[in-house]
Amino acid sequence: MEKILCYSCNKSKNKLNVRKSSLLPISLLMCETCISSKIEPRWLIILAGRSMGPDHVKEFIMKKRYIGNDISASELLV
Ligand SMILES: [Zn+2]
Questions:
Q1: CA 76 to ligand 1 centroid distance, Å
Q2: Rounded Cα distance, 55 and 43, in Å
Q3: What's the gap in Å between 37 CA and the centre of ligand 1?
Q4: What local confidence, expressed as pLDDT, does residue 4 receive?
Q5: DSSP assignments along 37-53, one per residue
Q6: How many angstroms separate the alpha carbon of residue 44 from the centre of ligand 1?
Q7: How far is the CA of 60 from the centre of ligand 1 (A)?
Q8: Can you tell me whether residue 74 is helix, strand or coil?
Q9: Whether pLDDT at 65 is above 90
Q10: What local confidence, expressed as pLDDT, does residue 1 receive?
Q11: What's the 51 CA to ligand 1 centre distance in angstroms?
């Protein structure tokens, strides 16, 4: 059986839930831990920042609502 990974923390979990992103109009497969801590995948925050502007993702970046290395301003400007 194919292993499904959480879009946010990249861990394989027994149970993943479909959750609508609050930044972009797409659906994500995420584990309970990520959903309950209200985080979004790091790549999605960057993507949303690039397409909708840094203000759109400011809160996520300031409150570090993602997993991984800090997102730098330069990553939002491409
Ligand atoms: Zn997760």
A1: 23
A2: 16
A3: 9
A4: 87
A5: TT---HHHHHHHHHHH-
A6: 14
A7: 16
A8: helix
A9: yes
A10: 60
A11: 24
Does position 17 have pLDDT exceeding 70, yes or no? yes
State in Å: Cα 39 to ligand 1 middle.
9
- Residue 72, burial from CB neighbour count under 10 angstroms (0-12, 13-18, 19+): exposed
pLDDT digits (tens, 9 = 90+) for 18-57: 999 999 999 999 999 999 999 999 999 999 999 999 999 9
**Ligand 1: centre distance to CA 49 (Å):** 21
Fill in the amino acid letter for 57.
Answer: V
d(CA 54, CA 68): 18
What is the C-alpha separation between 45 and 69, in angstroms, rounded? 12
Distance 41 CA to ligand 1 centre (A): 9
In this predicted structure, the answer to whether residue 16 has a pLDDT above a threshold of 80 is: yes
Global pTM? 0.90
